[in-house]
Known about the structure:
183 residues
Amino acid sequence: MIYILIIILVIVLIIGWVISTYNKLVKLRNNIKDQWSQVEVQLKKRFDLIPNLVETVKGYAKHEKETLEAVIDARNSAVNAKDAKEEIAANNELSATLGKLFALGEAYPELKADGNFKQLQDSLSDVEEKIAYARQFYNDSVLKYKNATQVFPTVLIAGMLGFKEEQFFEASEEEKQNVKIEF
């Protein structure tokens, strides 16, 4: 009789631990989704600013068509990304092309002095800063989730219940390069 009670108690404890672990993993996964949506809010702001910035630059730098088209193509790729992995890659490309666009401001002093360009550039810089913070919080959430799903014995539960690996938002190779300043 006592053995049956001990077995029942052990089973109840194991079931309680599995439920508790499952709930913890769900909360961590939902936190990642929440943080990703925060990144997307900032990316949407960026996407909305870019066409205005490109139109402003067009008036001053008509022969810089290739740079302007690259920015628009990168923006469209980011907007049309199908999943987080594609969106991360597309946004890294967009960041690189925006750097080229801002370099045009340095090449055209009259553009750099334009109030509309300056306002759009400041707005975009503000959004870029917010994107950086949102990425940081997203990556923190992914780290907590990865740690939780990869430690023993939780890794057993995570694998059995279908908790998949999440991707960090990483800087592209172009963003990791040193900035080249030419005089």
